[in-house]
Backbone:
């Protein structure tokens, strides 16, 4: 038990240090819940120890009560009363009666042994609660392959990336889809290898380049002019349709932008027009315009990606990227993102068709989702920020998806990362483990001392036949002489009354019980043959 107590504490130490022990992620015994196995097997292991000590206690009460405490020690000392010798029987008492009797008569060895039995009853519930399954966060340093690095893709002019981003944005807003892999909100990070793991909730953490794209959305009426004079104008025929929308570039000079700036880098204005019959049958026309200045923030970030879905779950900015040895923060973009909706005239008809689809599709996504709301008319009210909020949501998503596909190029390099698992692990509960170790240690030490004292007390005693059977008892007391005064129909009280005037002892050479009658004057009358007569009788026999 002492060794098991030490082993329990050692196992607890390693459990705390390693956040538990690895176990199969699937229960082999599918018909039995894991909680039952975790409580049943430790108890099954402890039960033999508890039963072993219960049996040892039974031996203590049978023999130790016979050797260290009355009756046999008192018998060996001589002049023992009947209730302390031949009438004392712990085995006929239950545990609570034994506790009271041993305390009353100061039979400390029996009392201590019985108390350890009571203590062992705590071992089973403690053992049943020692083990538990937990899913702690387990971090493991690994090396992954970086798949993307900061850089402007060479094929951005074919507008495939912009077209797919516009299509995804439309589906995401309309269908409520999640962000694509390695994109979260306004952030897009460099893609890297995802490790394989059995944990569906596992994630991987790595330092990579990240790009946050922000569109600034000051809101104006249809004649959109910013306080700094930046102006956006659009011309259209209201008679063409009662619902019209689009996106145009702003006036570069009024917005403080060099006239030779690529139109793909200019601020843009989204515009929306709606015409409907008013309350008096008159045609009411309303329009809104939203000017935005896209800009990007390039930083080194600590990105956390789910290994199952590749979803970007956490972004922690670390430092700005100041290097200009790439074509995103350096020439030709110089840290300025594409607006993604205004493109130069292309000679390729397919590319030109994509440009037209994008420039009409993205404001169409905004307008269509606005028209699906019950309060669509409120979108055009003076002071309303509804179009501002919706345009911000749609355009931000679009710019983030563009950032993932346009501003990162293929890469082949190693990347230090941390794999964060939440696999089920076998954990040892500290409170239950400390309690179980304490009980095992206490029972082990006390049990060892009790048995050493038991051995010491028995060293001078001699019994040819250990007590227990009727024959052995008769062999010990046959020559004592007091049996003639007892009858088979005597109860315990009458037997005690008849033997009250006697004193009992033991012959140290033969182990036979000796009885003497004591009168009021303390005169002693032997009722038992002498040792020589007894030995002669044994020899004759």
Residues:
């Amino acid at each position: 038990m002492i060794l098991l107590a030490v082993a329990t504490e050692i196992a607890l130490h390693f459990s705390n240090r390693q956040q538990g022990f690895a176990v199969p992620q699937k229960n082999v015994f599918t018909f039995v819940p894991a909680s039952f196995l975790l409580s049943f097997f430790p108890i099954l292991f402890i039960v033999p120890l508890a039963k072993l000590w219960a049996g040892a206690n039974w031996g203590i009460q049978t023999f130790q009560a016979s050797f260290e405490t009355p009756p046999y020690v008192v018998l060996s000392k001589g002049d023992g009363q009947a209730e302390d010798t031949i009438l004392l029987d712990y085995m006929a008492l239950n545990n609570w009666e034994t506790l009271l009797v041993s305390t009353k008569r100061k039979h400390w060895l029996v009392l201590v042994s019985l108390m350890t039995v009571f203590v062992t009853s705590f071992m089973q519930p403690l053992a049943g609660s020692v083990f538990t399954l937990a899913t702690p966060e387990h971090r493991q340093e690994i090396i992954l392959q970086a798949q993307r690095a900061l850089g402007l893709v060479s094929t951005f002019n074919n507008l495939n990336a912009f077209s797919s981003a516009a299509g995804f944005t439309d589906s995401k807003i309309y269908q409520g889809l999640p962000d694509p892999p390695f994109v979260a909100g306004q952030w897009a990070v460099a893609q890297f290898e995802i490790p394989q793991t059995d944990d569906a909730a596992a994630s991987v953490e790595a330092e990579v380049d990240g790009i946050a794209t922000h569109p600034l959305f000051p809101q104006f009426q249809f004649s959109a002019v910013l306080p700094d004079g930046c102006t956006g104008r659009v011309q259209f025929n209201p008679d063409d349709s009662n619902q019209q929308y689009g996106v145009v570039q702003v006036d570069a000079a009024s917005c403080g932008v060099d006239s030779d700036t690529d139109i793909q880098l200019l601020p843009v204005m989204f515009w929306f027009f709606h015409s409907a019959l008013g309350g008096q049958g008159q045609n009411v026309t309303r329009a809104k315009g939203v000017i935005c200045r896209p800009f990007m923030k390039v930083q080194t970030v600590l990105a956390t990606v789910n290994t199952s879905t590749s979803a970007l779950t956490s972004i922690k900015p670390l430092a700005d990227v100041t290097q200009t040895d790439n074509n995103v923060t350096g020439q030709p973009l110089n840290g300025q993102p594409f607006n993604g909706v205004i493109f130069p005239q292309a000679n390729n008809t397919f590319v030109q068709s994509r440009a037209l689809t994008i420039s009409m599709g993205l404001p169409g996504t905004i307008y269509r989702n606005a028209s699906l709301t019950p309060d669509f008319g409120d979108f055009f009210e003076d002071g309303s920020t509804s179009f501002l909020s919706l345009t911000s949501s749609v355009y931000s998503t679009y710019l983030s998806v563009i950032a993932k596909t346009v501003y990162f190029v293929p890469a082949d390099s190693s990347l230090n990362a941390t794999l964060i698992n939440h696999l089920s692990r076998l954990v040892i509960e500290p409170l239950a483990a400390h309690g179980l170790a304490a009980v095992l240690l206490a029972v082990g030490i006390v049990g060892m001392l009790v048995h050493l004292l038991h051995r010491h007390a028995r060293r001078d005693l001699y019994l040819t036949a250990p007590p227990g059977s009727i024959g052995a008892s008769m062999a010990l007391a046959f020559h004592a002489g007091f049996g003639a005064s007892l009858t088979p129909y005597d109860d315990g009280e009458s037997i005690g009354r008849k033997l009250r005037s006697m004193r009992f002892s033991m012959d140290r050479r033969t182990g036979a019980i000796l009885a003497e009658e004591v009168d009021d004057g303390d005169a002693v009358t032997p009722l038992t043959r002498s040792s020589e007569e007894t030995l002669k009788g044994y020899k004759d026999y």
